[in-house]
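Q: I have 140 residues here and want to know how they pack in 3D. Can you give me a structure?
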Amino acid sequence: MSDITIYHNPACGTSRNVLAMIRNSGVEPTVIEYLKHPPSTQQIQEWLSTMGATVHQVLREKGTPYAELDLGNPKWTDEQLLAFIQQHPILLNRPFVITPLGVRLCRPSEVVLDILPYPQQGLFVKEDGEVVIDAKGRRV
């Protein structure tokens, strides 16, 4: 079992890039498709605590019922927002990556490099053509 877990959405380019960068470090992570297997409220709270983030900071607006549910309204408590995420997992931004070095919401995708315990093993080019890692495994 890997010591790296990614909460992944294969339909998301950022999530695919993050998964590929993890693999470029020589690791096959545990991949959890979070829309099929959402994290528990307790897991999300632990991630937020570790990251020093708020629920508002990990909500996804685009392509979700965020506006319809009026989730930008300050009337919602963290507990209520977490309940909305349980009802609509698409509201949780992605990808989340958990490693021995920490937990991050990896947006932009290069954020994952800060918590990978192993170096990049070679060239990495994002799906959009941006070179992130050079041929010697160094961040560009």
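Q: Anything worth noting?
A: The beta strands are 5-8, 30-33, 96-99, 102-105, 124-125, 131-133. The CA atoms of residues 74 and 88 lie 19 Å apart.
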